[in-house]
Amino acid sequence: MNGLSVRRLATDAEWRSVAVGWDRLLRDSEAGSALQSHAFLDCWRRHLGQDREPFILAVFRGEALVAAAPLQLATRRIWGR
To answer: Which of 2, 27, 39, 45 is the most buried (most CB within 10 A)?
Structure first.
């Protein structure tokens, strides 16, 4: 897999550990915005995402973050189920 590894960032410490790499990827992206910054997403997650489980996937080449997908899992009741 060309030295790439995918990890799920499941803890606050793991999420915080990618802050510098996350913002570097954002700066290098032509489509990046301030709403995608690590600081904004962290604030949103702590204050508005409490009922959702973070499901953040990070792709590394060695120890360098090269891609990321900030996803979340949410349970929704539909028709009482």
So the answer is: 45
- Give the mean pLDDT of 37-53: 84
Helix (H, G, I), strand (E, B) or coil at 65: strand
Contact by Cβ (8 Å): 73, 53: yes
pLDDT in tens, 51-73: 778 889 999 999 999 999 988 88
d(CA 14, CA 43): 15
Question: Which of 28, 21, 51, 39 lies closest to 72, judged by CA?
Answer: 51
Listed in sequence order, the residues at least 6 apart from 44 whose beta carbon sits closer than 8 Å to its beta carbon are none
* pLDDT reported for residue 49: 72
pTM value is 0.78
Cα separation of 21 and 30, whole Å? 16
